[in-house]
Amino acid sequence: MRTLLFLSLIFVACADADEPAPASLYFPPLTGSGWETATPASLGWNEGAIPGLLSFLSASNTRAFLVLKDGKVVMEHYFGKQLVNPSLDFTATSAWYWASAGKTLTAACVGIAEAQGKINLDAKTSDYLGVGWTSLSLVQENKITVRHQLTMTTGLDDGVADKDCTEKPCLVYKADAGTRWAYHNAPYTLLDNVMTGATGKDLNAFVNEAIETKIGMEGTFIKSGFNNVFYSTARSMARYGLLLLNKGKWAETQVIPPAYYELMVNTSQNLNLSYGYLTWLNGKASAMVPGLQTVFNQFLTPSAPADMFAAMGKNGQIINVVPGKGLVVIRMGDAPDTASVPLSFQENLWQELNKVIR
Q: What angle do CA 244, 247, 249 make, to 5 degrees?
């Protein structure tokens, strides 16, 4: 946390947020392993800085690293051993967990369900989970809506012993819904039950039908304690990043409703300007971070382009999308530090990337 506080004092010039998006994007086929590539040299990138970037990634416990430019793979590197079989190297076919980077995937599913008329974002959460899903009074509980769950503003206490616990005794009052931003896993996780109750489909069935089959992505949510954790290959994570880069559209298929996509990638409330719908935003005047109520008057990731937005999870799971440069950056791996969301690591990563990308 000291590193993060130090970073709050640093401002690094960022790329122009108004740089136009690429005229066209490449989308890999829905089936097979084919994926067009581009070389760093062809893009005018600094190839001499790549060994330093790879050294940084290896030293920080990275398993997979990809960079897409306009949809094409420019960098793809794998490090270390597989999780389930340590005798095998980590490769393009190895699965890894997204941790909280999966929050943005859940957010997209909620938006798709809303477009289907299954979910009302402004409805009380109790309309889907039943009255008494928290330990709050009825008046307090009735103020919590699905939208509050998407924006981390439920007002439930994130200072409880287990922030992941979704059981009633763990869901206690801290503030009225909409008046306090706090990074809290439990209300987010309960969106899974909201979706299941609203759509009549379990989480994996809905994700597969709504997103995976439409973009050639493979992955699955696996229950881990109170949490549902998404696992996929790095290339599947990159496919999802490419979907976000193209404003929720895969080639000619609109997957995430356009209006909802805009809600995901823009400030969702006036408490933490750097947070959309379960999605982190760069380039805002201020930012809040997990575990603190401090407002830092700086960009979320000062060294990254101002228009970058991100999905981030524990142990450094990262999807970075930079519309103005047509970039998607993927990192999977073990813990580079002890943070619940890898903000300091993401800053350090962009310091290294800036030496390569021109």
A: 90
